[in-house]
Amino acid sequence: MRRAGAGLAVWLLALAACAPIHASPPTSPVAAGKQITVTATPVPLNAQDPAQDRIGDFRYIGGLVLTSPDTASLHGLSDMEISADGKLIAISDEGDLLSARLLSDSKGAPTGLAGATLTVLTGPDGNPLQGKLEADAEGMALLPNGDMLLSFERNNRILLYPAGGGAPRIAPSPAASFPANGGMEALSAIPGAGPGAYVTAGEDSGETWTCKLSGDCVQGAAIAKPPEFGVVAVRALPAGRMAWLLRAWDPVRGSRNALIIHDAGGEIARLEMTRPLTVDNYEGLAAIPAEDGSVRFYLLSDDNFQSSQRTLLLAFDWKPAK
Question: Which of 66, 120, 142, 241 is spaced 20 to 30 A from 99 at the CA atom?
Fold first, then answer.
């Protein structure tokens, strides 16, 4: 169940486009880098109880199953960022970058993606990343200046993709050894710690590090978790809070996830998802704070390129207690 040339200028231009969403099959597939149609099908939080719209303090806003008739590459999505105006970017663990605009209804529920494109990630030599060893992108962080950081498993490293385009460069990463498929899936900018600060974590170990582009990575406290759970995503929130996404799977219980919010004193909120809720291999996390202190969270699942799994995008609202 694990797993799971393009600079930033490419996806920034792509977000300006807006294509209709439809389900008509194309006459032939389109290559990565071209605009693609994304079909979005609504899903309830709980198919056995369609009226359910809450998990503890988290309110379900809506969710979608995402597919495309145009390409076989809209799979394996492992992390994402969504801005307040709906600009969405996501990475796949096969080395593709999805750019689109998230559409919503009058109540804020997601309804689809428009203007979607797929581009191929490049390496420091400017050439497309080749093979699973080099292209296994897992974590994403957008820095305040628009630069994008991506963390990779297998060949464990962090690359910085300049906002203005061009080849990426190596960024500081922890001086640690990771299992081949248990490395730095979680990655987030920490604007409160400086414009070049970010945090990452080991999926299996739960160990965390705070890094700066101008320096090294400093190890912090490990995430408290059951051993069967892996740390797969993180987002920094206002007021020094952090949101951590954990994932587990076994053949009896299937996929399970927990979204845990911490402040300086420890855990303050938790969203747990298991059957019969709409669960899958959630690995991606986006967080959009609002002026009233609430946060809109989006969860994105990696379907492992398996027909038995789905690419799901779910939205939840959470507001901290005063």
Answer: 241
